[in-house]
Specification:
Largest sheet: 8 strands, mixed
Strand content: 35-45%
Helix content: 10-25%
Shape: globular
Distance between the termini: 53 Å
Radius of gyration: 15 Å
Structural class: alpha+beta
């Protein structure tokens, strides 16, 4: 009897926008790429949708309530030898001011300045796309 194909784990991330600025967060020392920059979010838990995950992570990690504008197409990325599906969502803040509750640091950066920051590999292609978006 055939078994259903194993689904790759999924990670959902928020690209929080404020005019032409986006919020980036510095990774933690225990993360696979410590001390570099990424976008807030995390693994999609069993029974949750990526959208629920983005909202939960924004609340728990940054203390903000977000509105999701649009989801970007998913892409696969190899993380420590296993395929993980990543979903990025363009979001705005409905309530609260972001502060680093989970991450060591967070900051608003103009999209044209994203090239000045060292991003973890999976986030770099999103940063590159965002920089092209304002050219």
């Amino acid at each position: 009897m055939a078994t259903p194909a194993q689904q790759s784990p999924m990670d959902a991330r928020a690209v929080l926008e404020r005019v032409d600025d986006v919020l980036i967060v510095r990774t933690r020392e225990q993360d696979p790429h410590p001390g570099v920059w990424t976008f807030p979010g995390g693994p999609v838990e069993s029974g949750d949708s990526p959208e629920i995950t983005v909202r939960r992570c924004a609340r728990e990690q940054l203390g903000v309530q977000v509105e999701i504008f649009v989801g970007q197409p998913p892409f696969e990325f190899d993380v420590d030898g296993r395929k993980v599906v990543f979903r990025y969502y363009m979001c705005g803040i409905l309530g609260g001011e972001p502060h680093a509750k989970y991450w060591p640091e967070c900051k608003w950066v103009h999209k044209t300045r994203l090239g000045e920051f060292d991003f973890e590999p999976k986030a770099q292609q999103v940063a590159d796309w965002l920089m092209k978006d304002v050219e």
